[in-house]
Amino acid sequence: MTELEANKSASRRLYEEVFSRGNLDAADEIMDAGAVSHGPGAPPSVGTAQIKRQAMALRSAFPDFKVTLQDQIAEGDRVCSRWTGGGIHTADMVLPPPMGTVPASGKELAFDEIRVDRFDGGRIVESWFIPDRFTMWNALGLIGTPRP
Question: The pTM is what?
Fold first, then answer.
């Protein structure tokens, strides 16, 4: 297996094991302890705690949460992945302020995310991710549907 293939496999494991299966310990195998994650609207986080919190928040609100990897491209030390996650919203979901807690809706929904992982020594050391929060928040009734 080439280094690019190994890096792609590690990124895929992050979605399949941590998010789909809830195996939080896998994050510590895949990511460096000092990994820096950059997401929209928040300061960078360091380590694996934040991704574990995100996975648990989704898996708590959507116990049947599953991830499907749609596309993956690798070059140099980077892997770019586009994935879709979804499930049935059967439990309250805690969102960051000002959203707060969203009661279970019973709705099935899905959203996409694009993530770029930078690797060093076979582990993710830095990531940039852009989740499609608009689709999720719209499906949950937190924001209105734009008019045509």
Answer: 0.89
